[in-house]
Amino acid sequence: MRIVVADCSVDYAGRLSAHLPRAKRVLMLKNDGSILVHSDGGSYKPLNWMSPPCSLATLELDAEQEEAGIVEAWQVTHKKTADKLIVSLFEIFHDSSHDLGVDPGLIKDGVEAHLQELLADQIELAGEGHTLVRREYMTAIGPVDILARDANGGSVAIEIKRRGGIDGVEQLTRYLELMNRDPKLAPVQGVFAAQEIKPQARTLAEDRGIRCLVLDYDAMRGMEDQNTLF
């Protein structure tokens, strides 16, 4: 990644036109060809940008640009739309490049593995009288997150997601089809558990006889709001 701090102006031309007048800004040029223009404010959102796939070229300055004090100019062109972002640099204060390597991605608090651990410890949240059989119960097509038994001794398969979508319901449906073929487990009830369940996923789950369970992650960790009056 290349980081440039410069006195610059920026012009965007394409499906829309936009102009950033001359000011000091941070320019981020990434290896994927994208560029982001940031100011010292406005939180995380750049003032302007060009998303990949795109290419950057240094322009040859004409007399008018040189007379205006421009020392360097870049043209970033989107390969599909031909939109252009032109950056005119009047003074460069910092210019450095850094190899950031492969990013492991964002690891968020409340990931599925932790939710699984918490629900296994608090299995009563799945229903009164429920007991834990085991976590990561293996089937022929992969492990179901939790296998439990209800108050009547019936099998309960629980699939846990951070955000519950249709794909998660489909995944649990496949597990239930296999588990219900096992006479030692059948009949198996399905529970789709998540911090947030999308309306379409809830409709599909209920249509298939799968119960939905919304998990309050903070409450499960004992971090519910203590500042309420009642």
TrEMBL record:
Endonuclease NucS N-terminal PH-like domain ranges (all copies): 2-104
Signal peptide: none
Cellular localisation: Cytoplasm
Sorted UniProt keywords: Cytoplasm, DNA-binding, Endonuclease, Hydrolase, Nuclease
Class of the enzyme per the UniProt entry, highest EC level: hydrolase
Molecular function GO labels: DNA binding; single-stranded DNA endodeoxyribonuclease activity
Domain annotation Endonuclease NucS C-terminal: ranges: 111-226
EC number: 3.1.-.-
Gene Ontology CC entries for this record: cytoplasm
Presence of the UniProt keyword Zinc in the record: no
Family: Belongs to the NucS endonuclease family.
Function: Cleaves both 3' and 5' ssDNA extremities of branched DNA structures.
Protein name: Endonuclease NucS
